[in-house]
Amino acid sequence: MGLPGEGVLQGLAVTARTMTRRADTRQYPDVPPDLPPRSRGVIALREENCTVCMLCARECPDWCIYIESHKEEVAVPGAARPRQQNALDRFAIDFSLCMYCGICIEVCPFDALFWSPEFEYAEYDLRDLLHEQGRLGEWMATVPPPPAHDPRGEPAKEEAAARRPAPGAAGGGA
Amino acid sequence: MTSADWLLAALGTVAVAAGHRVVATDRLVRAGLHLVLCLGAVAGMYLVLTAEFLAWVQVLIYVGAVVVLLLFAVMLTRAPVGAAADLDRPGWTAPLVGGAAGLGLAALLVDAYRWTAVAPAAPGTPEALGAAVFRSWVLPFEVVSVLLLAALVGAIVVSRPGGRR
Amino acid sequence: MSLAELGLRVALVVVAFLTLPLVVGQAEHKVMAHMQGRLGPMYAGGFHGWAQLLADGVKFAQKEDLIPRGADGPVFRLAPAVALLPYLVVLLVIPLGPGDLVAQPLDAGLFFALAVLGVGVVSLLMAAWASANKYSLLGGLRGAAQLLGYELPLVLSAASVAMAAGTLSLPGIVAAWRPWWLLWQLPALLVFFTAALAEIRRPPFDMPIADSELVFGYLTEYTGLRFALFLLAEYVGIVVVAALTTVLFLGGWKGPFADASLGWLWTLLKVFAVSFAVIWLRVATPRLREDQLQRLCWQALVPVALGQLVLTAAVVTAT
């Protein structure tokens, strides 16, 4: 330490400098926040894509996804037997339990679950945080388009596969 | 009686009543607070007697410092907030001695002055007081300061860790 | 001075007593927020939260008036009033402008102000003791030790100015003040300001209420209006200390021009500038430890104040 009171003067200088700058505060209810891309607000469901594979419900660490379904027989013309297909009856996520880990969205093989940045769904009753199918479907409208691909990043798997010459074309038939 | 007399009488009553509470109360800290009231009333009496400077000195030194020091010391002890049973000793000697001393002094004063009117002293302005202390009474003043200095040095020596070496 | 005029003067002082602390309190809200990169209150009253303190007052008035069962009731109830009253009385003798712009000119005004300020300690001890709470008691002990210690440099540095001006009257000191005193009395100014900060227990000298150690010190048990009165006392304290600093060291109503007509404005501007410094120091400095507090007082402030006294005496006798 140098002179006595040097630290105090430094503190005064820092606070004075901060005072002349604009505050970073955003007045939230008046001014909507601009959230970063891929914000995790709420989980949206695209019902048509769900095949009731139950992967999401099984991977969920705190078991907050409820799925109910029944089997339907679909008669396919020309087939020997009618096929069996799962039909979704209920899909619900309890956001009072959800810890926003996003594992369900990662594991869904059919792109039925998405992150939406909406976060204003607080409720007065804890039980109202259980979002049923219809509510989860409504969130789909708020899902942003996926961010553009990084031009210097690795190409997507599908693109790489499409660029690779087809095995049949190269071999010329064995 | 003039209004100054009435004021003096009222302040005197407050001072005496507060002084009585100081010794009669069974709560230690309340005794200190009553002492504040008592000394404040005395300061008010100085004010009525036009000893303005002395009144403020009384407030600054006695109310602001001495009583605070007293209360500070009381708080360092294990004194309870509520009433303390062992604070009051019943007895008739203390009122007797106190009353006799007070009445005796009063009688002495009354006898000394009888009905002679005494001209009021000049107002105790800081200027007059300074002139008195530093012109006529400078030697006693210096002696008192040396005494205080000795007391301070003595206090430091006594309270030093390790004692006398 | 007729009775009606005296009444008017006292009424004006009461108005100042009720409005200036609110202005300082609101300034503290906003200045502190911006110094910390925040905005502070923004909604109460519409424009930048100007009515926040009024809203706080309404909130305090609604709260339940609690007195702990073990507390010493009358003393507990009296303490906020004792905290507030000395400051109101001190405001009476502070000159706003030249001539007659002072509520009650006193021959020994400086001494009066210092004496009455000292009475404030009693309220602290009353609150601390009557609460029947360990934290309150510890806060009271710290407060008493701090206020006793810092009263000495406060009085010594004020005495230096009185010596330089040759009078104890506050208007007299301002009249005798010259701009070069800023340099001559600079050590006394610093000592007085620091000691006064400690006297009103503002950060960095808020050991008695240190909320991270003692909950809230001697105010722990206070709620509602009584707590609001203590808060008000703190802000009036800032105003009084700023006004005393202005009058003693910064030349009071003396400004760059038009002292006679605009004197009150210069005084108010200086008071607000010093109040700003008080708030600024609160934001910029951490709380002192108890031993640092005492060391600062006895090893720095008191010697500097004594040195200043010697210097002042030398200059006064030389000229």
TrEMBL record, chain A:
Highest taxon of source: Bacteria
Domain 4Fe-4S ferredoxin-type, residue spans: 41-70, 89-118
Alphabetical list of Gene3D superfamilies matching this protein: 3.30.70.3270
GO molecular function: 4 iron, 4 sulfur cluster binding; iron ion binding; NADH dehydrogenase (quinone) (non-electrogenic) activity; quinone binding
Cofactor(s) listed: [4Fe-4S] cluster
Broad class of enzyme this protein falls into: translocase
Residue ranges with Basic and acidic residues bias: 149-162
Catalytic activity, as annotated: a quinone + NADH + 5 H(+)(in) = a quinol + NAD(+) + 4 H(+)(out)
Bilayer disposition of the protein: Peripheral membrane protein
InterPro entries: 4Fe4S_Fe-S-bd, 4Fe4S_Fe_S_CS, NADH_quinone_OxRdtase_chainI
Region ranges (Disordered): 143-174
GO cellular component: plasma membrane
HAMAP family: NDH1_NuoI
Task performed by this protein: NDH-1 shuttles electrons from NADH, via FMN and iron-sulfur (Fe-S) centers, to quinones in the respiratory chain. The immediate electron acceptor for the enzyme in this species is believed to be ubiquinone. Couples the redox reaction to proton translocation (for every two electrons transferred, four hydrogen ions are translocated across the cytoplasmic membrane), and thus conserves the redox energy in a proton gradient.
Sequence similarity: Belongs to the complex I 23 kDa subunit family.
PANTHER family tied to this protein: NADH DEHYDROGENASE UBIQUINONE IRON-SULFUR PROTEIN 8, MITOCHONDRIAL (PTHR10849), NADH-QUINONE OXIDOREDUCTASE SUBUNIT I 2 (PTHR10849:SF24)
Subunit note: NDH-1 is composed of 14 different subunits. Subunits NuoA, H, J, K, L, M, N constitute the membrane sector of the complex.
Protein's name in the database: NADH-quinone oxidoreductase subunit I
Organism: Pilimelia terevasa
Lineage, top ranks: Bacteria, Bacillati, Actinomycetota, Actinomycetes, Micromonosporales
From TrEMBL, chain B:
Keyword Lyase attached: no
Family label: Belongs to the complex I subunit 6 family.
GO terms under cellular component: plasma membrane
Subcellular location: Cell membrane
Primary role: NDH-1 shuttles electrons from NADH, via FMN and iron-sulfur (Fe-S) centers, to quinones in the respiratory chain. Couples the redox reaction to proton translocation (for every two electrons transferred, four hydrogen ions are translocated across the cytoplasmic membrane), and thus conserves the redox energy in a proton gradient.
Any GO molecular function: quinone binding
Top-level taxonomy: Bacteria, Bacillati, Actinomycetota, Actinomycetes, Micromonosporales
Keyword vocabulary terms for this entry: Cell membrane, Membrane, NAD, Quinone, Transmembrane, Transmembrane helix
Membrane topology term: Multi-pass membrane protein
Name the record gives this protein: NADH-quinone oxidoreductase subunit J
Catalytic activity: a quinone + NADH + 5 H(+)(in) = a quinol + NAD(+) + 4 H(+)(out)
The organism of origin for this protein: Pilimelia terevasa
Enzyme Commission designation: 7.1.1.-
Statement: the UniProt record of this protein carries the keyword Zinc: no
EC category: translocase
InterPro entries per the UniProt record, alphabetical: NADH_UbQ/plastoQ_OxRdtase_su6, Nuo/plastoQ_OxRdtase_6_NuoJ
Membrane-spanning parts: 6-24, 31-49, 55-76, 96-117, 137-158
Pfam families: Oxidored_q3
UniProtKB/TrEMBL annotation, chain C:
Record localization: Cell membrane; Membrane
Catalyses which reaction(s): a quinone + NADH + 5 H(+)(in) = a quinol + NAD(+) + 4 H(+)(out)
The UniProt record lists the keyword Transit peptide: no
Single annotated GO MF: quinone binding
Keyword entries, A-Z: Cell membrane, Membrane, NAD, Quinone, Translocase, Transmembrane, Transmembrane helix, Ubiquinone
EC numbers for this chain: 7.1.1.-
Cellular component GO terms held in the UniProt record: plasma membrane
Signal peptide bounds: none
Transmembrane segments: 6-25, 75-96, 108-131, 152-174, 180-198, 227-251, 263-284, 296-318
Pfam families hit by this protein: NADHdh
GO terms under biological process: aerobic respiration
Membrane topology per record: Multi-pass membrane protein
Keyword Transmembrane helix: yes
Xref: InterPro entries: NADH_UbQ_OxRdtase_su1/FPO (IPR001694)
Family: Belongs to the complex I subunit 1 family.
Function: NDH-1 shuttles electrons from NADH, via FMN and iron-sulfur (Fe-S) centers, to quinones in the respiratory chain. The immediate electron acceptor for the enzyme in this species is believed to be ubiquinone. Couples the redox reaction to proton translocation (for every two electrons transferred, four hydrogen ions are translocated across the cytoplasmic membrane), and thus conserves the redox energy in a proton gradient. This subunit may bind ubiquinone.
Quaternary structure (record): NDH-1 is composed of 14 different subunits. Subunits NuoA, H, J, K, L, M, N constitute the membrane sector of the complex.
Protein name: NADH-quinone oxidoreductase subunit H
